[in-house]
Design goal:
Length: 177
């Protein structure tokens, strides 16, 4: 890790935790928050510190989004969320794609605000409807170098899995892992 990052993180260790908003219960009907402590921040900074390419940064973003969800699951019921919309039944922490797209967009903004994204900026969430009554939302990263947009979609899999990061154009065609 670069010396300047360590120096910056040493000053962070004495700072209070950052509180991030979180929503769940389909359509963001329930709001909560969770804290990103100094150790959590250090772990996130390490994930994103040595990315030499946009591709490596996207891989690190997958890991960072997963870490942020795991942090949120320590103090909220979202750890009960299952992939898709129907497998989690009436679980208190269930999330649909609206919840996921809003949460992941919040996470991406947090990473960007920390200065940890060098090759991407956060874009507005996107939606698709490739088939009748198949509306779906995702968070979006914009590659600052080549202008390509990337879907960052955590809705497909059970809680704790990293999100899918695929070109937005492919995602809009109905991508599913």
């Amino acid at each position: 890790m670069k010396w300047w990052l360590w120096l910056g993180l040493l000053t962070v260790s004495n700072v209070h935790a950052d509180a991030l908003p979180l929503c769940y219960h389909y359509g963001c009907k329930r709001d909560s928050h969770f804290e990103v402590g100094a150790d959590d921040k250090l772990r996130l900074a390490r994930l994103l510190s040595d990315d030499a390419t946009a591709e490596a940064e996207r891989a690190a973003v997958k890991a960072a989004v997963r870490e942020l969800y795991l942090m949120a699951g320590r103090s909220t019921p979202i750890w009960q969320d299952k992939g898709g919309n129907f497998l989690d039944g009436t679980a208190e922490g269930r999330m649909d794609c609206v919840d996921h797209s809003r949460n992941v967009t919040t996470f991406l903004h947090y990473l960007q605000d920390q200065g940890w994204l060098r090759f991407h900026t956060v874009a507005e969430p996107a939606w698709r409807a490739p088939r009748f009554l198949d509306l779906h939302y995702t968070a979006v990263l914009h590659d600052s170098g080549n202008g390509q947009d990337w879907a960052v979609d955590s809705w497909f899999k059970d809680f704790g899995a990293p999100p899918e990061v695929v070109p937005l154009a492919i995602w809009k065609e109905g991508y599913s892992p």
